[in-house]
Amino acid sequence: MTYRFENLEVWKLARQFVNLIYTITKSFPKDELFSLTNQIRRAALSVLLNITEGSDRKSDIEFIRFLRIAYTSMEEVLAGSYIAKDQGYINEESFNQIYDNSNVLGKKLNALINSLKK
Is the N or C terminus of the chain more exposed, i.e. has fewer CB atoms within 10 Å? Predict the structure, then answer.
């Protein structure tokens, strides 16, 4: 059996995004484990999990609501990444990876939202 979310390109991108975030945050200081590290990881997971949960809703209106939550969680990851960069936890290259992935993922989320509105 294949679930609907498994066929969504945006879900596949979100999964890659989560893996990127986990990889990058492994180098954060240990004293950030229960604050910034945890917050960024939870926000990244929220992107993936909201796409997953919304994909099984019975209406496109409900699915759109979950996709919007996913989008704002992605923005939360980006905001946390700015803080991590400002604190010297990540370098410019890692920040740019997160930023670029956010940009692609955000465009795909918006495209899916717009297609569901039609």
Answer: N
The domain of 47 spans: 13-20+30-117
Q: Across residues 11-21, what is the average pLDDT?
A: 98
In a domain, 6, yes or no: no
CA–CA distance from 87 to each of 1, 9, 80, 96 (Å)?
Answer: 45, 33, 11, 15
Q: CA-CA distance, 27 to 109, in Å (whole number)?
A: 28
Tokens of 69: 């939550």
For residue 56, give the nearest of 111, 1, 114 by alpha carbon.
Answer: 1
CA distance 59 to 104: 25
Tally of domains in the chain:
1
3-state secondary structure of 41: helix
Amino acid at position 114, single letter = N
